[in-house]
Design brief:
Blueprint: E1 9-13, H1 18-29, E2 33-38, H2 41-55, E3 59-63, H3 71-81, E4 88-91, H4 106-134, E5 138-142, H5 155-174, E6 181-186, H6 194-198, H7 211-223, E7 230-232, H8 235-246, H9 249-260
Parallel strand pairs: 1-2, 1-4, 2-3, 4-5, 5-6, 6-7
Helix pairs in contact: 1-2, 1-7, 3-4, 4-5
Amino acid sequence: MTMTYAGTTALITGASSGLGAEFAGQFAARGSNLVLVARRADRMEDLARDLRSRHGVTVTVLPMDLGRPGVGRELFDELSGRGITVDTLINNAGFATHGPLAEENPDTIAAEISLNVAALVDITRAFLPGLLASGKGALLNVASTAAFQPIPGMAVYGATKAFVLSFTEAVAHETKNSGLNVLALCPGATRTEFFEVLGGETAAVGKMQTSEQVVATALKALDRKDTPGSVVSGWLNRVTAGVAQRLPRAVTVAIAARAVQDW
């Protein structure tokens, strides 16, 4: 059954481009009002104007740096003050670093952990009671196929996404009788600005998908009566993730290292 989200509101982080913008478009097409959160206000304002025009939904734009302590409560209080109740939460904001850990900038990897892990948990905790009370939407956290094995050369990123996958599947079990659909989405390489921020496509593994394909996978999972705790986007990515879970750990680490290292 294809779910409609008419009359509900979806909060999407990292909504200025890529998967976040695609989620915004596809949820708006299903009738959901939107709250878009990211740092780049101009990108979100352009997207908001387009979605209001095409779908007749309400779109609220909140420029915000999410990598700060207490951001979940700050965001919740801001929306409560505006009279906005969130039914669906999509934690999409995040970024990666690439290189040997000994050569990484400590401030950059601290920001990576803050955004990919701490902010995601903080925002989830702030909005989860309301999501459970609503029962009309979903909680979706964007993990990655990087979550299924350690990745030398992207050690911090892989570990943050392993956390997101574990965290989300646990919350899905905790809330399984609530009516709220909880999903960890695990895309592989996706044609977005992700690799521009990373510095190139040398760390991309496998055939790239489009944002539209990845979001379609998520929505198909959310449409299911028995939404799984996690889903991998792309059949080859699903095979690779399954193999990684079955091979000896040392083997998967060695394979991952060869796949992403370019030094």
